[in-house]
């Protein structure tokens, strides 16, 4: 058994898509413990099956918009581990596409709630645990989207989703700015157009048969950016999964 200190990750939306891909990749690493945030822990057979082999996954209840879930998760982690090194705020929705002139305001609110308030709720609850990381460089990473770039506005019908990702980019940069003194590394990352329940239907709306990037390639690329991230070079900037910087 190794005496290495464990690297502890928290990943939201961990039951499918990119979030599950992160858990699958990280679970293979030595001295790693993963808190996998999911809406309904009783349903997560895939994670349970994986954990029966790797024994380094804790499934934890997290509805993104619930402050009490985030607080309860933090209390549980405080008791079992006492710190977190890396948070990946991955859970998100793309539930509506259509012209801005008829986009229901409910969709604007719903996307804002899950995609903007969700990551911020998670940050507020887990920040005390990130501050106890002894890695010297705790990380708060938000899975954003190139669709949220205002500098390179894509011509997709994504007012509700895009506005929420632009807003979460701001929130993430604010976290970077206000936590400079703690040495926290915070940045948003675009995972590519990925073969998931979200990415494949979106790809069809822009004329592709399917999303071009596999979950494995997206996750490997993002983990390289996350592993190598520094306060000086990476934090407070917008990246993609291939390590390319994107315009805000
Ligand atoms: P999926 O739709 O495949 O998975 C979404 C995940 O988020 C699921 O685990 C889902 O849980 C969870 N989730 C959604 N809403 C909530 C909520 N209210 N509370 C808790 N969990 C929630 O999406 P992807 O894996 O493709 O996307 C992951 C992230 O990557 C998202 O933030 C997305 O915006 C971003 N992204 C994805 C791209 C792509 O091409 N796939 C491109 C750009 C960005 P449940 O199963 O319970 O619904």
Automatic annotation (TrEMBL):
InterPro entries: Fungal_SecMetab_SDRs, NAD(P)-bd_dom_sf, SDR_fam. GO terms for cellular component: cytoplasm. Keywords: NADP, Oxidoreductase. It comes from the Eukaryota. GO terms for molecular function: oxidoreductase activity. Pfam families: adh_short. It comes from Adineta steineri. This is NAD(P)-binding protein. Gene3D superfamilies: NAD(P)-binding Rossmann-like Domain (3.40.50.720). Transmembrane segments: none annotated. PANTHER family: NADB-LER2 (PTHR43544:SF7), SHORT-CHAIN DEHYDROGENASE/REDUCTASE (PTHR43544).
